[in-house]
Amino acid sequence: MQDVDLLTELEPVVAENINRHLGVARDWNPHDYVPWSQGRDFAFLGGQDWEPGDTAVAPAARASLIVNLLTEDNLPAYHHNLLTALGSDGAWGEWIYRWTAEEARHAMTLRDYLVVTRAVDPVDLEQRRMALMAAGPANEPVEMLPNVVYTALQELATRLSHRNTGTATGCPIGEQLLARIAADENLHMLFYRNLVGAALELAPDRTMRAIADVVKGFEMPGTGQPGFRRMAAEIAGSGIYDLRLHHDRVLMPILRHWRVFERSGLGAEGEAAREDLSAFLHVLDAHASRFVERREEREARKALSSPR
């Protein structure tokens, strides 16, 4: 089945899931989640510019806040990729524009919260935003099936990252805000997860190959932002988001939901894709275990060297 046929076959599923989404989604106002009373002017308006002592947020949580915000900032690129992959006609277009409108709340609210509370350096944040958005397209697939699979995984990963970042801030307001954003990401994940499930019924071999390829090559959408590797290492080292969580809390739950390793009736292409996926997950699981072991060893050495 060609991509255009699959787009047509899945459109009723898209329409059904739009109705389901609208029935459970909760509208919310970004301004309600920002502690405006904590705000004060910066030097340009006669106040004081940001200083490192202004923030009470731990370095790893601060890195995660920056990565998460810049990821949300790149919404125009994701919108473009979705339109390229799925088109703007009918139910597909209706969903893309609704999704974009909901996602836009995330960046505006996170930025307001971070600037008002002085949790991060706003000048550095703006320089990073400009560099990321001026760099060009986001690193997402623009073919229909890989794009839908990727977005399902990415929404689940983002949900987990926002939740854990909120906890790591140590700020009740920040935790509440990031929980609210994570709730949106969860509903978006359900939408795309349902589409992939339907695609598995319509085109099992091609969808299994898309799942295997996307899982093997998965990168978070914020990978292209300045200093991402360093900040990602800091985030992983703190346990906010690491390989263990990626394997256990993102990949395996969604693969189980799709019954990837239980399905029968696959052709040669689907079986080969499933074997590739299984081999990759085995290696990833081993890497995740080793990462956790090394982190625990570092923490133990640090504890021994700390003054008592």
Provide structural commentary.
Belongs to the fatty acid desaturase type 2 family. Keywords: Fatty acid biosynthesis, Fatty acid metabolism, Iron, Lipid biosynthesis, Lipid metabolism, Metal-binding, Oxidoreductase. It comes from Nonomuraea helvata. It holds the Pfam family FA_desaturase_2. The protein is mainly α and 308 residues long. The protein has one domain (3-305): Ribonucleotide Reductase, subunit A (Orthogonal Bundle). 73% of the residues lie in helices and 0% in strands. The protein is built from eleven helices and no strands. The protein has helices spanning 3-24, 59-73, 75-86, 90-117, 122-134, 144-169, 172-202, 204-217, 228-238, 243-257, 268-305. The radius of gyration is 21 Å and the shape is globular. The model has no long low-confidence stretch (mean pLDDT 94).
